[in-house]
Design brief:
The complex is a heterodimer of chains A (97) and B (484). With 97 residues, chain A is mainly α. Chain A has three helices and two strands. In chain A, α1 crosses α2. The chains are: A mainly alpha (97), B alpha/beta (484).
């Protein structure tokens, strides 16, 4: 069975912003390769139309009036934040010296 | 104790009208059955106290429509204000939504009582419900077997007769496939027929909420409540909502029915073919034309789905970053490390795999090579379906290639869960309405279903054919009933 390289899996995990243990990298080397192999089947399709279908939805976008509607309170918005400080959501240091 | 839950909704409604039954009494039965059948693991979160309060409140009013006072179970990827909504993930284990999905407002307005939130594959990614962080639900027909998925908890709750109705969601067959495995009627409506506002997004161009019920009539009744335009969902249709029950019971004759050839090819097991052929014979015997039809690219439906669904999922699930809501890692570090650790610890193996594949597919050259190409083939597939509907009233196919199989069987193979959905994915790709109808059993007496696929917004016609077959087949579907 074909496997992806360790570096390939780590690159993909980084694109997805997912940290993987060495053991997980090994598991995904095989299962990701299997999935990519499966998806390669679309390359057998030739002569298709260049038009694309992003979503099977046929109506024109309907815009509503630009009026103030219902709004959430600050308390509601912060309700599920894993860490907060007063009226702010807390995150780790973003810029180091 | 009377077994009111074994009655149909019309009969329950009559008892309510005659004041011989109250919503509270029906809830007593629901929670008694739940208590005795915990091993089915249908629910992640129950809403017992609130349900009783709502029942008491209803009892102060006059009995309204047919669904008034009827208990319902909700798949746990539909947000419910102040009721935990987990998507069966550690990522949302403690997430309490601050608003209701549009479908929740609609069922409440109809006087229905939400019992709780049902188990499912994590973020609806799977076809057995085994990727749930809260362990898999069990098939009430045979508890060593899968319920199917991802709406497995909803399927088990209705098939076991714990609740009369449930909501599921269907991205690549997640209503129809578990309905087939548990002997239920499950409808994936036309894309845009039911608002997705408040449905936690998996693949936005495929997702639809739909009803899971014991009978065709009850399914149509529930769709009557769910369907409609919603200003909060840009993709919801402004097309008028019809009465989906209106053609039920009407004569079926002279219909032209197409069978997509690939969907009855060697990928389907002999036991499913036997059941399917029986249905075809019934249709022919009643003066309907049934013939094979070629639909383009059905053979590539699984890879198409993998590319489109995983691409969309990787983008949709980028929001779970440990900042605004959901799980956050306890490990100290930079903000980048916080994202990576949070997502590593919060998501299960299957979800991580799909996000990774999707992220890769949408990156650099691959986006054109895979994603754009998939969208082109999808366009052709939809065109081919629409062309078929110029000639045929409806399409018919099996729903699944086999009956339900033992738990654990698919866990080692990352492709199996996709292959299980090979017959149901095309309707999502083309945005078509499609319904599973129980049609027979295998030798182990496990249910097998057939799928009726309609042109866009032809749900009414699907229900007409389904109710005719339901009556002709007249199956005994009590086999999933739970212990009293």
């Amino acid at each position: 069975m074909e496997k992806l390289s360790v570096d390939e899996v780590k690159h993909i995990a980084h694109l997805a912003r997912i940290y993987l243990t060495d053991e997980e990298v090994e598991t995904y080397r095989v299962s990701l390769a299997k999935l990519f192999q499966s998806m390669d089947e679309i390359h057998a399709v030739k002569g298709y139309n260049e038009d694309i279908l992003i979503a099977p939805w046929t109506e024109e976008a309907a815009l509503r009036e630009d009026q103030v509607g219902e709004m959430l309170t600050q308390e509601e918005v912060l309700q599920n934040a894993p860490s907060k400080n007063g009226k702010f959501i807390e995150v780790p240091v973003m810029l180091s010296e | 104790m009377s077994k009111y839950l074994d009655l149909g909704i019309t009969e329950i409604h009559k008892l309510y009208q005659e004041k011989r039954l109250t919503p509270t009494q029906l809830l007593d039965e629901v929670f008694a059955r739940l208590e005795k059948n915990k091993e089915l693991n249908c629910f992640i979160t129950l809403r017992k106290e609130e349900a009783y309060q709502e029942a008491l409140k209803l009892e102060q009013e006059e009995v309204k429509g047919l669904l008034w006072g009827i208990p319902i179970a909700i798949k746990d990827n539909i947000v419910t204000k102040n009721v935990r909504t987990t998507c069966a993930s550690k990522m949302l284990e403690n997430f309490i939504p601050i608003y209701d999905a549009t479908v929740i407002e609609k069922i409440q307005a109809a006087g229905m009582i939400m019992i709780g939130k049902t188990n499912m594959d994590e973020f609806a990614m799977g076809s057995t419900s085994e990727t749930s962080y809260f362990k898999a639900p069990k098939n009430p027909w045979k508890t060593t077997h899968i319920t199917g998925g991802s709406s497995g908890g909803s399927a088990a709750a209705v098939a076991s007769r714990i609740v009369p109705l449930a909501l599921g969601s269907d991205t690549g067959g997640s209503i129809r496939q578990p309905a087939s495995y548990t002997g239920l009627v499950g409808m994936k409506p036309t894309y845009g027929r039911v608002s997705r506002y408040g449905l936690v997004a998996f693949a936005s161009s495929l997702d639809q909420i739909g009803p899971m019920t014991r009978t065709v009539y009850e399914n149509a009744l529930l769709l009557n409540v769910l369907a409609g335009h919603d200003v909060k969902d840009l993709t919801s249709s402004s097309r008028e909502v019809e009465d989906y029950t209106s053609l039920i019971g009407k004569e079926i004759q002279g219909l032209k029915i197409g069978i997509p050839a690939y969907l009855v090819s060697e990928i389907v097991s002999p036991e499913v073919k036997t059941v399917f052929n029986h249905v075809v014979e019934i249709l022919k015997a009643h003066g309907n034309t049934v013939e094979l039809v070629d639909i383009d690219y059905l053979k590539q439906a699984v890879p198409l789905y993998q590319i489109i669904a995983m691409g969309e999922a990787s983008s949709n699930l980028a929001r779970f970053d440990g900042i605004r809501y959901g799980y956050r890692t306890a490990k100290e570090g930079t903000v980048d490390e916080l994202y990576e650790r949070t997502r590593s610890e919060g998501f299960g193996e299957e979800v991580k795999r799909r996000i990774m594949v999707g992220s890769s597919l949408l990156s650099s050259q691959k986006a054109k090579l895979y994603y754009d190409k998939a969208l082109s083939i999808r366009d052709d597939m939809q065109a081919s379906f629409l062309k078929a509907f110029e000639k045929y009233d409806l399409l018919l196919a099996p729903t699944t290639t086999t009956a339900a199989y033992p738990l654990g069987e698919s866990l080692q193979d990352p492709l199996k869960s996709f292959m299980d959905d090979v017959l149901v994915i095309p309707a999502n790709m083309a945005g078509l309405p499609a319904l599973n109808l129980p049609a027979g059993f295998n030798q182990e007496h496990l249910p097998i279903g057939v799928q009726i696929i309609g042109a866009p917004f032809e749900e009414k016609k699907i229900y007409q054919l389904a109710s005719f077959l339901e009556q002709e087949l007249s199956l005994d579907l009590e086999g999933g009933k739970c212990n009293d």
